[in-house]
Design a protein that fits this description.
With about 240 residues, this protein is an alpha/beta fold. The chain has helices at about 15-30, 50-55, 60-75, 95-100, 110-120, 135-140, 140-145, 155-170, 175-190, 200-205, 220-235, and strands at about 5-10, 40-45, 80-85, 125-130, 150-155, 195, 220. It folds into two domains: about 5-110 and about 225-235, Rossmann fold, CATH 3.40.50.1860; about 110-220, Rossmann fold (3-Layer(aba) Sandwich), CATH 3.40.50.1860. Helix 1 (about 15-30) runs parallel beside helix 11 and helix 3 (about 60-75) crosses helix 4. The radius of gyration is 17 Å and the shape is globular.
């Protein structure tokens, strides 16, 4: 089929997570001929200030919002009809983006909202979250799950350092067997059976884990959730 929708991806936060998402997008739209897939625009804007520091310390907050807004505006002008922010933490700035780019309303598909809906439809009543400190402290997942009455468990303080190390390993493409083992250790440290991969680096590590290791877990990936939405809504 020929798609009229154009998917815009604001990535680079980090780049290898964006690469992983791009591959997943391609596989989600199988085609006999390459023109049977939707057009995809990717802005790998890896030069943006830290989203986490902007939330926790207000560091370069205005610059970050302006750069996020500029990328969204540019993709819309280039023809994007649906935009995905390929970073969970960046969703903390959505209202700022909409103030700067009001035409983005209704065109940005929130990976947070998509994931929370999927979790609710699956009948979960409580779930654990691994994510950056900025994402956790901003409460985007807690607020997204609240209307469904789903309880959210977040990491203990001692788990934050492990998370940071794992995220940075993916950003720098330094994924070793030891890093994958640490990721397994992090996931299995949660007592529940349902878990959100709330940082876009974590699905990259999840893809490296041997089959069967997480069979007893129900894993939710916000980027895969938004792909399910795109498959339904793209025409």
């Amino acid at each position: 089929m020929m798609y009229h929708d154009v998917i815009g991806v604001l990535g680079g936060m980090g780049s290898f997570a964006t690469l992983h998402f791009f591959e997943a997008l391609l596989k989600a739209f199988p085609a006999e001929k390459e023109w049977d897939r939707p057009r995809i625009l990717i802005d790998n804007r890896c030069t943006m200030p830290s989203r986490v520091l902007a939330i926790l310390e207000g560091k370069k907050y205005d610059q970050l919002v302006e750069e996020l807004s500029d990328s969204v505006r540019s993709m819309l002008r280039a023809g994007a009809t649906k935009v995905v922010l390929a970073c969970n933490t960046s969703h903390c700035f959505l209202e700022d983006i909409y103030r700067n780019v009001p035409e983005a309303q209704g065109k940005i598909i929130s990976i947070i909202d998509a994931c929370c809906r999927e979790i609710a439809e699956a009948g979960e009543t409580e779930i654990s979250l691994i994510a950056s400190e900025g994402t956790i402290q901003s409460g985007v997942f807690k607020n997204g799950l609240a209307p469904y009455g789903i309880a959210l468990r977040t990491p203990e303080n001692e788990q934050y350092l492990m998370q940071r190390e794992l995220i940075e390993a993916v950003k720098q493409d330094h994924i070793t067997p030891e890093v994958v083992e640490r990721f397994v250790e992090l996931v299995t440290s949660f007592s529940g059976e349902a878990l959100i991969l709330g940082c876009t680096e974590f699905p990259v590590l999840y893809s490296k884990v041997p089959a069967g290791v997480f069979d007893h877990f129900r894993i939710y990936d916000p980027l895969m959730s938004v792909i399910h939405v795109l498959k339904k809504e793209c025409h």
